[in-house]
Amino acid sequence: MLRVAALVHWGLFRPCTGLSVRMSSSGVAQKGILANRVAVVTGSTDGIGLAIARRLAQDGAHVVVSSRKQQNVDRAVAMLQGEGLSVTGTVCHVGKAEDRERLVAKALEHSGSVDFLVCNAGVNPLVGSTLGASEKVWDKKGAVILISSIAAYIPHVELGAYNVSKTALLGLTRTLSLELAPRNIRVNCLVPGIIDTDFSKVLHKNKALWTSLNENLGLQRIGQPEDCAGLVSFLCSSDASYISGENIAVAGFSSRL
Ligand SMILES: NC(=O)c1ccc[n+]([C@@H]2O[C@H](COP(=O)([O-])OP(=O)(O)OC[C@H]3O[C@@H](n4cnc5c(N)ncnc54)[C@H](OP(=O)(O)O)[C@@H]3O)[C@@H](O)[C@H]2O)c1
């Protein structure tokens, strides 16, 4: 049912999962806390993924951006390079094995290794009942890897399959962090609240859903993609070298006890 798309392919990606980090051996930062590192960010031509790609590059990493559409990749690469950042890009639909392999190859072109993998690509939430969701829907959800959602903690009745897939990512984070610890690979998960992107427009349009979600907004504002990006950079950095298996909400409130 919930199939984890094989961006998690250990032979190719050293660190893997939504937000995954190989620990620094030297801790040396020449231009920034992520200097001399290579990051791969899926779904990074818009929204949260683009903000993460920009921030990791601003902090010194070489970033490989990707998404399904060539024109979006070209636009994002041109924009980020225009800002003086070290980025390259390639088309990668995370549900397609050949695309994932091309993405890895592109990243390896730079320096022969991948230090950080941010699996951000998501799909539009199905609005409807969980039991009514077709097999096709569940298969599609399988391509969403480890950027979770506050819907994992606070499920909304109209986002059944989405809630479940995002909750599964919390468990995947914990399990992978244990499995990969012996290889010194840390695995963490960003849990965004409501962030102002194209993706969340579906929530804004649904007045009842928006009102109910709004009740949980502690800081009384919608989040911005940049609110998520700083945490990702921190978790990639050596400052987070003893943090693994965590699911961290960026939601303007806490969903934990
Ligand atoms: N926005 C929110 O309120 C919110 C809240 C909680 C969690 N999240 C999670 O955050 C992640 C990003 O959401 P967002 O709001 O930033 O979305 P967004 O603004 O719609 O951007 C999505 C990005 O992913 C790409 N993409 C979509 N499907 C893809 C696929 N199958 N393979 C590769 N790339 C794909 C898109 O480009 P192309 O069209 O070119 O592929 C685009 O670059 C998702 O996992 C989502 O579930 C978002």
TrEMBL record:
UniProt key word Signal: yes
SUPFAM superfamilies the UniProt entry points to: NAD(P)-binding Rossmann-fold domains
Pfam families in alphabetical order: adh_short_C2, KR
One annotated GO biological process: electron transport chain
GO-annotated cellular components: mitochondrion; nuclear envelope; nucleoplasm
Keywords: Oxidoreductase, Signal
Family: Belongs to the short-chain dehydrogenases/reductases (SDR) family.
Protein name per UniProt: Dehydrogenase/reductase 2
High-level lineage: Eukaryota, Metazoa, Chordata, Craniata, Vertebrata
